[in-house]
Amino acid sequence: MTQHHFLFLSPSGSTRVAAWAAAEELGRLGAQCRITDLSPVLRREAPLPNPLPGECLWVGSPVYCDHALPQVMNCIAELSPSDGRSAVPFVTWGGICSGTALLEMGAALERQGYAIMGAAKIMAEHASLWCYPNPLGRGRPNQSDLEQMRLLARAVRQRLVDREAGKLAGRITSTTLDYQTERNKNKAAAASLEAAKRRASPLLADGARCSGCGLCVDICPVGARRMASPPSPDETCILCKACARCCPQEAITVDTSGFLERLRTMAAECGEEQETRVFL
Ligand SMILES: Cc1cc2nc3c(=O)[nH]c(=O)nc-3n(C[C@H](O)[C@H](O)[C@H](O)COP(=O)(O)O)c2cc1C
Ligand code: SF4
Ligand code: SF4
Fold first, then answer.
1. Mutate which of 203, 209, 215 to test ligand 2's pocket (most atoms within 8 Å of Cβ)?
2. What is the dihedral of CA 102, 104, 106, 111, to 10 degrees?
3. Mean pLDDT of all residues in the chain?
């Protein structure tokens, strides 16, 4: 029976929750799963495990600025080329626009020789709005979102069983993931995390407040913070703001004034249904 390997980056935890919902469902059906959270790999605490022959690779990323995280895309690009292995890309998004993240992940996996067995975009709370009581995507992913991940897991497993039995098995191609309107595709083409970083103020700590506890360094999901006095991010920072959220001294400040209103306006302009969707 095919094994499944879940590989994801999840700075705020929603992508991890989605991955676990599918992995637990596969486990319930008797399939073996292994989980690779990319954070320890990026913090150089663990090596990136090699894909095993015949394994089905599930790759998860949050949508940041209309795209998958660069660290996840790099990881796909570094996979050794596969001959007919299967993959399932999935993203979580915060209710503005899921952009072209899923399409880009699917196309990158195909370039590496993977057959796409299915995909999903899962609604989640917008990670940048943690300080608002009513953020976009509040309470998501909820049970019905996670049920969609379980449904995807069951369908993918059945496709792999059919393929092993020599039956004609269903699959999709990355063109199935080309679901955005022209307007949203053009917006995604113009957006990037790098551009957002040029606009944002760097997440520097106020030296007068910082106690040097190192929590922000330990929590950074991509290993971008170095212990210094006070700690500061390097160019690999993804603006997840986990450091600002965790700092017990509130030494790392983020200006979120008017942010919710701006993001709500962007969401309305994009017009993407606030939905979770499975592609099969
Ligand atoms: C810097 C940044 C950029 C984001 N960009 C988008 C976006 O373009 N569209 C969107 O719908 N959500 C966006 N989000 C929200 C995330 O996609 C959402 O919160 C996601 O579920 C986070 O996944 P995680 O909990 O696994 O980290 C962004 C969040 C951050 C922090
Ligand atoms: S978490 Fe805050 S107090 Fe601790 S090292 Fe980082 S900036 Fe300083
Ligand atoms: S430095 Fe802060 S904002 Fe940047 S990636 Fe690390 S935790 Fe996230």
1. 215
2. -170
3. 94
ipTM value, please give it: 0.98
190 part of a folded domain: no
Q: Note the pLDDT tens digit of each residue in 159-199.
A: 999 998 988 888 999 999 999 999 999 999 999 999 999 99
Integer Cα distance of 78 and 116 in angstroms: 18
Ligand nearest to the CA of 242: 3
Alpha-carbon torsion angle 116, 118, 123, 127, nearest 10: -30
- 86 and 30 assigned to the same domain: yes
Q: Which residues line ligand 1 (CB under 6 A)?
A: 10-15, 62-66, 92-99, 124-128, 239-240
- From the CA of 79, how far away is ligand 3's center (Å)? 25
- CATH of residue 127's domain is 3.40.50.360
- Give, for ligand 1, the residue of 38, 96, 193 to mutate: max count of ligand atoms closer than 8 Å to Cβ: 96
Which residue range forms the structural domain that includes residue 243?
Answer: 195-270
Mean pLDDT for 239-259 is: 92
**Residue 25: enclosing H or E segment and its boundaries?**
helix 14-28
Q: Which atom of ligand 1 is nearest to the CA of 124?
A: 21
